[in-house]
Amino acid sequence: MSDYNKKLIMEDGTEYLGFGFGADKEAVCEIVFNTSMAGYQEIISDPSYTDQAIVMSYPLIGNYGITDEDFESKMINLGALIVREVNESPSNFRFTRTLSELLEDSDVPGIYGVDTRKLVRSIRDHGSRKVLITSIDTTLEDGLKKLAETELPRDQVKRCSSKKRWYARTSNPKFNVVAIDCGMKMNIVRELNAHGCNVTVVPYDTPAEEIMKMNPDGLFISNGPGDPEDVPEVIDTLKALKGQLPMFGICLGHQLIALSYGAKTYKLKFGHRGGNHPVKDLATGKIEITSQNHSYAVDDNTVEGTGLKVSHINLLDNTVEGLASEDGKVFSVQYHPESAPGPQDSTYLFDRFISNMSK
Q1: Which of 84, 127, 278, 284 has the highest Cβ tally under 10 A?
Q2: Catalytic option among 254, 272, 277, 336
Q3: pLDDT exceeds 70 at position 349
Q4: pTM over 0.85
């Protein structure tokens, strides 16, 4: 095996050696991990990962290549990809590119050969933090200096939201839904279409008056990257539309609904990322296995008195996973009921949104 040519430098001074693939560039990112065993293409094309370096805990990534039909967005905005082993010879009749080719085309650096088990444990024990992906020749002193001098951006939603209004129509539509795009996954649009909804997707900073002029039956607030408090435009829009439309929020949309009602959010130590989180629906007692990707959560101590109630909880750490208003027209979940390739335990939530619009 040839000598290492890339390395990771963490803020605590630890280094992880490996080999480069994808774009040959240096990057400073927030490092996070994902525990999914499949769906790496959907993960790296999810705008919620904008600017983040993802460590895949599953050891072999790239084995079925990249397929044109499976992207969750047109842009690849993640900061970097870190894997144990990357496969450059995919076994899949549908594949059109290798993972390395996609990263190179998207100007995203990758590193493989890293001890990802140790790295995931480090993130679990010490939390998400900044990491430098760099050449093997970079000294620890220079690397730590770059980390200290680099401030992580806070404008991710602005960069990955759509720049203009666009439409996703379906045959024999029953409802018209406006979706606020904070970095939305395409499978959300597919699910809404499949449930008989024409969808008008609008940029994150679209004001309430403009949305109401579209005469929608319901409002959807999408997932997206970053701190929900960095998106005051959406919070103000939701405050103005409260009580006027049925609302459904997913992930960042869930947090933004909470903030618009007066609840608070906080950053988790290492977030929830992967397709294996058990969530309890407090109304039915049923347990759902869910797909998640977020760094922030709603503070359950601030929900009381807002007009919202906690509807779902995470059984791993008891964090808030769902909220609903007393009148039943507004609800949100922290996880992804539209998750592709799965799990699919929570698609009933789209039916709940349809029911609210029917009423």
Answers
A1: 84
A2: 336
A3: yes
A4: yes
